[in-house]
């Protein structure tokens, strides 16, 4: 009741005014839900690249989230065949955000989620911007907190799975607050 409304108001206020993501507003977040494996069946928050990449014109109810091999995706991928028509999970570092996005696009990926390489990062969103190369990318590129990316990859390794199954984007405004399954390690 009233306590839930107060909590929601506080959460919105924090997201809009106190967010460590410097100037990001709530509508600039994009949400996705891991459907499988079940131990990480949470709704995750990501931020779209600031000045490159496409947008989601389609909602994918069940699509594979495939960790890139090698994780930084700065060149040829060993598992590129699995990224075709799916979404890649990539790790920050080694080359620009745009370069990673282009590698995934060249392998036929529908989008890329780039997780911070600081595995303890559970609150600071990096603004992904264009590099100086004047290249472009057409697929959506999202930034994911390092702790979230690490927990997804760790779960897949523990289960011996080559990918997670996700829904993206998820409209969180249509989900009752008590059903919002956020990762327990993240403060919303």
UniProtKB/TrEMBL annotation:
<keyword id="KW-0964">Secreted</keyword>
<feature type="signal peptide">
    <location>
        <begin position="1"/>
        <end position="23"/>
    </location>
</feature>
<dbReference type="InterPro" id="IPR037323">
    <property type="entry name" value="PRADC1-like_PA"/>
</dbReference>
<dbReference type="Pfam" id="PF02225">
    <property type="entry name" value="PA"/>
</dbReference>
<dbReference type="GO" id="GO:0005576">
    <property type="term" value="C:extracellular region"/>
</dbReference>
<keyword id="KW-0325">Glycoprotein</keyword>
<keyword id="KW-0732">Signal</keyword>
<dbReference type="InterPro" id="IPR046450">
    <property type="entry name" value="PA_dom_sf"/>
</dbReference>
<feature type="domain" description="PA">
    <location>
        <begin position="65"/>
        <end position="149"/>
    </location>
</feature>
<protein>
    <recommendedName>
        <fullName>Protease-associated domain-containing protein 1</fullName>
    </recommendedName>
</protein>
<dbReference type="InterPro" id="IPR003137">
    <property type="entry name" value="PA_domain"/>
</dbReference>
<comment type="function">
    <text>Plays a role in the modulation of physical activity and adiposity.</text>
</comment>
């Amino acid at each position: 009741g009233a306590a839930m409304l107060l909590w929601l108001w506080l959460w919105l206020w924090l997201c809009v005014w106190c967010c460590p993501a410097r100037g990001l507003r709530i509508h600039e977040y994009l949400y996705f839900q891991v459907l499988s494996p079940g131990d990480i069946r949470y709704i995750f928050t990501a931020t779209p690249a600031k000045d490159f990449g496409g947008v989601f014109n389609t909602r994918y109810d069940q699509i594979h989230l495939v960790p890139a091999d090698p994780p930084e995706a700065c060149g040829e991928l060993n598992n590129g065949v699995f990224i075709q028509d799916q979404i890649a999970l990539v790790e920050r570092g080694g080359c620009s955000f745009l370069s990673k996005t282009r590698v995934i696009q060249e392998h036929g990926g529908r989008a890329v989620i780039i997780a911070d390489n600081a595995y303890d990062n559970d609150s600071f969103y990096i603004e992904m911007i264009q590099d100086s190369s004047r290249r472009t990318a057409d697929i959506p590129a999202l930034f994911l907190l390092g702790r979230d990316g690490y927990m997804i990859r760790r779960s897949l390794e523990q289960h011996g799975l080559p990918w997670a199954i996700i829904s993206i984007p998820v409209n969180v405004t249509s989900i009752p607050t008590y059903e919002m399954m956020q990762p327990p390690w993240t403060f919303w």
